[in-house]
Design brief:
The protein is built from eight helices and four strands; from the N terminus they run αβαααβαβααβα. The chain is mainly alpha-helical and 161 residues long.
């Protein structure tokens, strides 16, 4: 959350001359409501089912840069779909997250004691991120453009522009 995956994903796609897609945006478009509303109205389990399907569809249909929501890797099937793909994990520490998003309540999993919850989420998920990632790119104290360049360099991909 707040690592810049949407912003950086768009920049990487632009640099590669490739299309960009975000599975969170796909879910919002399909449901006609924000992710936080889906969590509140239908619960996390329902959202995760929507997320699994959105990722499965995007991986099958999309040829370009794809950004996944931070919890997508919780699903073993999603992790299996990502195996062998050029996945970049954008890492950051909690202080950087605070600086970027303020850890506000618009993030449903951070509604109470956001710093502690962010740390707990990262402790629970970090090994899953590194399991599926071909590269890890630190985003702390970097501009989105610097992160996008670092992703391309780490994945050894050539800029189209």
């Amino acid at each position: 959350m707040g690592s810049g995956k949407s912003t950086v994903g768009g920049l990487v796609a632009e640099l590669l001359g490739a299309p960009y897609r975000d599975t969170d945006a796909d879910i919002v478009a399909a449901e006609g409501r924000e992710i936080s509303d889906i969590f509140i109205e239908d619960g996390e389990e329902h959202f995760r089912a929507l997320e699994r399907e959105a990722v499965r569809t995007a991986v099958a249909e999309h040829e370009g840069v794809l950004a996944l929501g931070g919890g997508a890797v919780l699903d073993a099937g999603t992790r299996a779909l990502l195996t062998g793909l050029p996945v970049a994990y954008l890492s950051m520490d909690v202080e950087e997250a605070v600086r970027r998003v303020g850890l506000n309540t618009a993030r449903p999993l951070l509604a109470v004691n956001p710093r502690r919850q962010w740390r707990e989420l990262m402790e629970a998920r970090r090994h899953l991120y590194t399991e599926v990632a071909r590269v890890v790119v630190a985003t702390d104290d970097r501009t989105p453009e610097e992160v996008a360049d670092a992703v391309l360099d780490a994945l050894e991909l050539k800029k189209d522009v």
